[in-house]
From TrEMBL:
Alphabetized Pfam families for the sequence: CinA
SUPFAM superfamilies: CinA-like
Positions of the CinA C-terminal domain: 11-162
Top-level division of the source organism's lineage: Bacteria
InterPro entries: CinA-like_C, CinA_C
UniProt organism field: Thalassospira xiamenensis
This protein's name: Damage-inducible protein CinA
Length: 167
C-alpha cells in the first residue's frame, strides 16, 4: 500500500521522536478507519513505537473496546469533545505498552453532516500517561480524502506535541 509522501515523512519524524523519548503509541480511530496507525506502521522500525490500534467506527465498538461511557455517547453523540477524550483515555488504559494515545472521531463525508455537526467536523484528543489530555476541534474543507488526510496530519502533530510532556 502506498502512503502519501507527506504523510509518510510526518510518520517517520514522529517515529524517530518517540523512539528518542521512549514513547509508545496507541490509536483509537473512527473517521480515519485505521489510517493513522497505517501511516505509522508503514515506517521501518515502527514496532518499537506502535503498540496497537483500535478502529472503533460504531458506538458499540467505542463503548465495548475502549470503554467510552454509554452516557457520553447518548448525551453528546460520537462526534464530540467528551467522546474524543474518552476514546484517547480508554485506548491508553487498554493498550498494554502505550504511553500515548490519540483518538479521532468525525464526519468525513460526503454525507452524515448536519447544521450542528457539519461534514468535515473532527474532534481529536491525545492522552499521555501522567499528562493532561489534549483536545482539538477542527472543521476541515474538502472531500472525504481531504478531511481524513488533514485529520491524520493533526493527529501526528498532537502526538508530537505530547511527547516528553509531563503532568
Amino acid at each position: 500500500m502506498n502512503i502519501e509522501p507527506d504523510i509518510l515523512a510526518r510518520a517517520e519524524n514522529l517515529i524517530a521522536l518517540c523512539k528518542s523519548k521512549g514513547e509508545m503509541i496507541a490509536t483509537a480511530e473512527s473517521c480515519t478507519g485505521g489510517l493513522i496507525a497505517g501511516g505509522l506502521t508503514a515506517v521501518d522500525g515502527s514496532s518499537s513505537v506502535v503498540d496497537c490500534g483500535f478502529v472503533t467506527y460504531s458506538n458499540e465498538a467505542k463503548h465495548g473496546l475502549i470503554g467510552v461511557p454509554q452516557e457520553l455517547l447518548d448525551t453528546y453523540g460520537a462526534v464530540s469533545e467528551p467522546v474524543a477524550r474518552a476514546m484517547a483515555e480508554g485506548a491508553l488504559i487498554r493498550a498494554p505498552l502505550a504511553t500515548l494515545a490519540v483518538a479521532v472521531t468525525g464526519i468525513a463525508g460526503p454525507g452524515g453532516g448536519s447544521d450542528e455537526k457539519p461534514v468535515g467536523l473532527v474532534h481529536l484528543a491525545c492522552a499521555g500517561k501522567g499528562r493532561p489530555t489534549l483536545h482539538r476541534r477542527r472543521v476541515y474543507d474538502g472531500d472525504r480524502h481531504a478531511v481524513r488526510k488533514a485529520t491524520i496530519i493533526d493527529a501526528y502533530e498532537m502526538l508530537s506535541e505530547m511527547v516528553g510532556k509531563t503532568g
